[in-house]
Structure formats: C-alpha cells, structure tokens
Design goal:
Strand content: 35-45%
Number of helices: 1
CATH class: Mainly Beta
Structural class: mainly beta
CATH topology: Jelly Rolls
Oligomer: single chain
Order of helices and strands: EEEEHEEEEEEEEEEE
CATH superfamily: Jelly Rolls
Strand order of the largest sheet: 1-2-11-7-13-5
Largest sheet: 6 strands, antiparallel
Number of domains: 1
Radius of gyration: 16 Å
CATH architecture: Sandwich
C-alpha cells in the first residue's frame, strides 16, 4: 500500500495496490502488519457501515477520552468528501482540516487518529461507507462541532441548500464554544504506551 502523509500530523491517506483483469479487481483493504509498520500502532475493535443518499452530511463527530477513537474509513459504493479537523489543544494545526475525496473507483482510505473531529458528505446519488474504529462506541462520550463553523473554512463541495442533517447534527456548537478534551502533548493512546508510534 502507498501511505501519503498529509499536512497535518496524525492524518494519512492510504492507497491500496489494486490488481485488475478481465474478471474485475482484487485488493487487500487492511493488513495489521503493514498498517502498524507504515502508519501507526492501533488495534481496531469495531467495524461500522452506513448507507446514505446525496447531500447527507454526518459530522463533525468525535468521542471524548477515555473512549476516544481512531478511524480508518473508506467507500464501498459511491463517493464522499471526508473531512477531519484537528481539535487537539496546543497543536500547531489546531482548527485546521484535511478533506479527501473517497470513491468506489479510487479505493482510497483515510486514517484519522485520536484528537480529531470527523465527518463526511455524500457527493454521489448514494454511498455505502465503511470504517474501522480502535475503541468501542460509547454514547455518553459523544462530542461534536458544527459542520458549517465559518472559522473552519470547509468547502463541502455541494450547495449548502442540498445538505441533509440529522436533528442532532443541526445543533452542534462551533469549535470556539467548546473546551476540547484533547491536548496535543498528552498521550492519546495510553493502552499502547509500551509501543512506539510512527506519527
């Protein structure tokens, strides 16, 4: 796999090696050995899948410590714009984001480490979206920031009037109104303290 470092520490784009012929294609979507050696040491414990239609925006979500999550996300069908926002207090890139288009054709994956808010918007008629998490979902640990916070400057690539939100996602505060639970210099992976991280 080809691992691309982004401009923000802790965010990686991953391009698998795809083998195609007249029958179709094959690729290895995840290898713990390769991921741990080329990206970072994580132990994924939960896989999720969602289906959404054009304009659906889910985000920008995070889980607070001690239930913070890293995510490895990809698209099985359709296309999304996937966004991660640095919310680590003290980070030199605090409040900045990386946006990546993930599609069924480019097979790209996006790794979002702990300390980021994450969301995506559907660009195609519909999408099937999959992601691996390194911590279990805990409802009481939910956190989020507003998708349209002007300070973030995110271009979601579709008209605002086409955005479809859940009732919950309509009510999130902007980043300046929250106290982030993440500190840039803190250990966000205490369970892996004995292992070296590569970012």
């Amino acid at each position: 796999m080809n691992v691309i470092k982004t401009d923000i520490e802790g965010l990686f784009i991953i391009e698998p090696k795809v083998f195609g012929d007249h029958r179709g294609y094959f690729f290895e979507s995840f290898s713990e050995r390769d991921f741990n050696s080329q990206v970072c040491q994580v132990r994924f414990v939960q896989d999720n899948e969602s289906k959404s239609r054009y304009g659906v925006l889910r985000g920008l979500h995070f889980q607070k410590p001690p239930y913070a999550q890293s995510k490895l996300v990809r698209v099985v069908k359709g296309a999304v714009l996937d966004v991660a926002v640095d919310i680590r207090m003290g980070s030199p890139t605090f409040g900045r984001h990386v946006a990546v288009e993930l599609t069924e054709d480019n097979h790209r994956q996006f790794f979002i480490s702990r300390g980021f808010a994450h969301g995506f918007v559907v660009l195609s008629d519909e999408v099937i979206f999959q992601y691996k998490c390194d911590n279990f979902y805990e409802p009481e640990s939910e956190g989020a920031i507003a998708w349209n916070d002007p300070a973030l400057g995110i271009d979601w690539k579709i008209p605002a009037e086409d955005i479809i939100l859940s009732e919950k996602d309509k009510k999130h505060p902007v980043l300046a109104e929250i106290v982030s639970p993440f500190l840039y210099d803190s250990d966000l992976y205490p369970e892996l303290r004995s292992n070296s991280r590569t970012f």
